[in-house]
Amino acid sequence: MNEENAACESRVEISAAVAVYNEERILPELCRRLAAVLKTVAGRYEIVLVDDGSKDGSWKKIEEICGDDPNVRGIKFSRNFGQHVAITAALDNARGDYVVLMDADLQDRPEEIPKMLERCKQGFEVVYARRRSRADSAGKKLSSRIFYSVFNKLSSFQIRPDVGVFRIITRRVCNHVVQMREQARFIPGLIDWMGFSSDYVDVDRPEREAGETQYTLSKLMKLGVETIIAFSNLPLRLATGIGFIVTLLSFPPGIYLILKWLFLGDAATGWACLIAGMLFLGGVQLLAIGIVGEYIGRIYMDVKQRPLYVVEKRT
After folding, report:
1. How far is CA 4 from the centre of its chain?
2. Which of 63, 125, 240, 294 measures 20 to 30 Å from 256, CA to CA?
3. Model confidence pLDDT, tens digit, residues 69-90
């Protein structure tokens, strides 16, 4: 009986998994609002903050918050491993029956959690925060729209373009996500790929409370390439298709030149056209080799079986 009581006391009803990168100014307000909300929906809760190699005083601030609130736990990476790896670390350490995934910039409002949790308790394994409106820059909106459009055309499954990381998942979904240890990680894609029952709650996405977005154009492009390669082999098929089409197109002019030489005795001329054709074919070949190389590179990273992240400190 004592063991059962201890298990009940140690049970965490809901966890908040948050990746942190250079958010020193926002962290106190984030944890204050999160704690205020989670107290209203759960008897016992926890906030798991993962410092993804921040260059400011984020880790020091996390240590201070953990000293003041025993429900907050902190994990510090030895360097920057990326947002989705940091989310993975938070999920690895989350103990709740329900787990909230959210960004640290307070564009994901903690006050939306009760509505999402209510929907989750009605039997859904995943409940998304669907963005009814978002106060992001035009460039970020455009890049996001392009990414989801390309991904959904190339992938065998669809990701909603109007949602982000902010969502609630059940313990069962969390357990399945942490079992997937591939190096190229995109957490929303992994969750959607599993196909568990899902629903959504409409939310408004406000501006950042402080600081600037950490996703530059180059980082967004890198994430897009890695995600598409991780979830689709269609680029390989496209390379094969382009090669096949180019081969077919080369037959008519080749046959024409052979017949012209046989029946008219006219040798082929036009070095400029020949060089242009060679450059075109060389470009197609390099494109195909590059696509294959991207996939081989991902295979190489996975077969080394290095850990996804290295923890330097824990609170």
Report:
1. 38
2. 240
3. 999 999 999 999 999 999 999 9
Pick the CATH number of 2-232+308-314 from 3.90.550.10, 3.90.180.10, 2.40.37.20, 3.30.70.1150: 3.90.550.10
CB neighbours (10 Å) of residue 154?
A: 17
- Is residue 151 within 8 A of residue 227, CB to CB? The reply is yes
H or E element: which one contains 312?
Answer: strand 311-314
Q: For residue 312, what pLDDT is reported?
A: 96
For residue 13, the surrounding DSSP H or E stretch is strand 12-20
Cite the DSSP H helix spans in 94-233.
Answer: 113-121, 138-154, 171-179, 187-194, 217-231
Q: What is the pLDDT of residue 264?
A: 72
Tell which residue, 220, 82, 216, has the closest CA to residue 150.
220
3-class DSSP state for residue 202?
strand
Q: What is the domain partition of the chain in residue ranges?
A: 2-232+308-314, 234-303
Flag whether pLDDT at 114 surpasses 60.
yes
Using CA atoms, how far apart are residues 102 and 276, in angstroms rounded to an integer? 52
- Identity of the residue numbered 78: S
Q: Name the residue among 47, 91, 103, 49 with its Cα closest to residue 74.
A: 49
Tokens for 304? 């080394």
Alpha carbon 255 to chain centroid, angstroms: 50
Crossing angle of helices 187-194/83-93, nearest 10°?
Answer: 60
**pTM for this one?**
0.78
- DSSP β-bridge partners for residue 107: none
Residues 190-230 have pLDDT tens digits of 998 899 999 999 998 877 666 566 655 566 677 677 777 77
Q: Are strands 45-51 and 72-77 parallel, antiparallel or unpaired?
A: parallel
Instruction: State how far the Cα of 65 lies from the Cα of 20, in Å rounded to an integer.
Output: 14
